[in-house]
Write a structure and sequence with these properties.
Layout: E1 3-8, H1 24-27, E2 31-33, E3 38-42, H2 49-59, E4 86-90, E5 97-101, H3 105-115, H4 133-143, E6 149-154, H5 162-176, E7 181-186, E8 199-202, E9 209-210, H6 217-227, H7 229-237
Parallel strand pairs: 3-7, 3-8, 5-6, 6-7
Antiparallel strand pairs: 1-2, 1-4, 8-9
Helix pairs in contact: 4-5, 6-7
Length: about 240
C-alpha cells in the first residue's frame, strides 16, 4: 500500500459554509486512514465521494478529466476546489497511476487518438472509440494498468454490464494481490463493493465511516428488491 492517509487542512479553510467544505462528509473530515489495497467510497449522489476522489487525483498530478501524469490535454472538467486543502501521506511515494472519470472518458479516448504512436499497445490494439464503451474500459484496465501504481476510479461500473463488472473484479484482484497496485474506487455498484478484504467508506450520515458490505444501502436495497420485486414495484408505482 502506498497512499496511507488523506487529511483535510482544516486550519486553512476560511469557511465551512462554502462549497465543497459545506458538504457534511467534508465538513466533518479530519483524516482518512487507508487500510487496504482496495478502498471503496460509497454514498448518495452529492455526498462528496467524487469530490474527494477528484481532489486526490489532482494532488497526484493526474489529469482532472482522466488519465495519468503524462496525459496532458485540455477539456472542460471542473477543477476540485478541495485540492489545495488536503494532504496526502505516502509510504513509499509513487507517481505512476491513473484517474478514471467515467463522464469524460470520451475526451480521454480522443486525446489518445491524437498522441498514440504505438498502435494502441496500451489499449488493446485499437482506438478506444472503435470499441464499445464496456470494451474500452476493460481494454484500459487490462493493458494499461500495470506496475507499482495507484488507480483512482470514479464510477467505473458506468460502462460495465454485471458480467463485465465481474470480469473487472478479476483484473482488480490480479493487480491488488501483487501488492503493486492500490485502488480507490467511488461506486454505486453492490457487485464491485463486494470485493473481499476491501474497506468500504460511507460518505452518508454527515461523516465518513467504515461500513460492512451487508450494511450498505446498495446491498440492502438491491437484496430487498430482488427478493420482493413485485411488492416494491407495486409500492412505488401505485397511483
Amino acid at each position: 500500500m502506498f497512499l496511507k492517509t488523506v487529511s483535510l487542512l482544516r486550519e486553512n479553510i476560511r469557511s465551512f459554509n462554502v462549497y465543497p467544505f459545506s458538504i457534511p462528509a467534508i465538513k466533518s473530515l479530519h483524516e482518512i486512514e487507508l487500510k487496504s489495497m482496495v478502498t471503496f467510497f460509497v454514498g448518495e449522489n452529492g455526498s462528496g465521494k467524487s469530490t474527494l476522489l477528484e481532489a486526490i487525483a489532482q494532488q497526484c498530478s493526474f489529469n482532472s478529466a482522466g488519465g495519468g501524469r503524462n496525459n496532458v490535454y485540455e477539456v472542460h472538467a471542473a477543477e476540485s476546489a478541495l485540492t489545495d486543502y488536503i494532504k496526502l501521506s505516502w509510504m513509499p511515494k509513487i507517481t505512476n497511476g491513473f484517474f478514471l472519470r467515467a463522464e469524460s472518458f470520451y475526451h480521454f479516448a480522443s486525446h489518445i487518438d491524437d498522441v498514440d504512436d504505438t498502435d494502441y499497445r496500451d489499449y488493446g490494439g485499437s482506438s478506444l472509440h472503435k470499441q464499445s464503451h464496456g470494451e474500452s474500459f476493460l481494454s484500459l484496465f487490462i493493458n494499461r494498468f500495470r506496475g507499482k501504481a495507484i488507480y483512482l476510479l470514479d464510477e467505473p461500473e458506468a460502462a460495465l454490464s454485471p458480467s463485465r463488472q465481474l470480469a473487472f473484479l478479476r483484473i482488480l484482484h490480479d493487480l491488488a494481490r501483487s501488492g503493486d497496485a492500490q485502488f480507490i474506487i467511488a461506486t454505486h455498484s453492490p457487485i464491485l463493493m463486494g470485493y473481499p478484504n476491501s474497506v468500504i467508506l460511507n460518505f452518508d450520515d454527515s461523516k465518513i465511516d467504515e461500513v460492512d458490505y451487508d450494511m450498505t444501502d446498495h446491498y440492502q436495497i438491491t437484496k430487498y428488491f430482488l427478493q420482493h420485486r413485485e411488492k416494491v414495484l407495486a409500492d412505488i408505482l401505485d397511483e
